[in-house]
Amino acid sequence: MIEIKNIEKYYANKGVKSYILRHVTTSIKQGEFVSIMGPSGAGKSTLLNILGLLEEPTYGEYHFMGEDVTAMKERQRIELYRNHIGFVFQAYHLIDEMTVAENIEAPLLYKKIPGSERKSRIADVLDRFNMVAKKDLFPNQLSGGQQQLVGIARALVAQPSIILADEPTGNLQSAQAEQIMDLFKKLNQEEGITIVQVTHSEKNAQYGNRILTIEDGVIKEDKATRLE
Ligand SMILES: Nc1ncnc2c1ncn2[C@@H]1O[C@H](COP(=O)(O)OP(=O)(O)OP(=O)(O)O)[C@@H](O)[C@H]1O
């Protein structure tokens, strides 16, 4: 599903290049649940953003679902993102002026899904996440865990092939974090949705099947998680 080869990313400042990622080569198959770990500043979010088509690498090849992303025009990349990628952010990134239902609806409007289908898809995810009673509330009327559930519902409603999550439980208390991780595991195991998350938590990483460790922009280790 994902193949990256020799990805490099640097920022040039006054002629001096600071490398964020160097020679990153890996592949992720459909149905995997991968955790990206490593010290602060190692380049984890940068890699996730590149995988999620939110940032471009300076060099290297990226094939997403068989398509050469680096050769694409911006419009094509946006289209690919809308059709296949659900991104979940640590700080939720919900729109404060929109209700829960409206936030969840937003990606469907971009995809030009007709009104009746939008309604039924929103009803489905609200039901599934036990949030029907909260649908007309605004994000600031919800707990952090509930806001992240809305963030995940918004990512899922567009029926993505992959969910990319950047420290999805970073702002949550442990009980809420466990609920989110259980949900990811279920989505992965029961619905076959590919998941890639950045996490600082070894415990969260164990929910997945593989851990990629990045240090100083380089993949240091690529191993399977403990079998349960
Ligand atoms: N626009 C930019 N210009 C210059 N440097 C940048 C820019 N964006 C990110 N960086 C640098 O890239 C490095 C890697 O950042 P990144 O957010 O990918 O790390 P991370 O491993 O996710 O860290 P954390 O765990 O703290 O979130 C950091 O040192 C950061 O300062």
Automatic annotation (TrEMBL):
For this UniProt record, the keywords arranged alphabetically read as follows: ATP-binding, Nucleotide-binding, Translocase, Transport
Q: Does the keyword Kinase apply?
A: no
Q: Does the keyword Translocase apply?
A: yes
Ranges for domain ABC transporter come to 2-227
Q: This protein's superkingdom?
A: Bacteria
Which Pfam families does the entry mention?
A: ABC_tran (PF00005)
**Example GO molecular function:** ATP binding
Question: What cellular component terms from Gene Ontology apply here?
Answer: membrane protein complex
Question: Which family is it part of?
Answer: Belongs to the ABC transporter superfamily. Macrolide exporter (TC 3.A.1.122) family.
**Protein name, per record:** ABC transporter ATP-binding protein
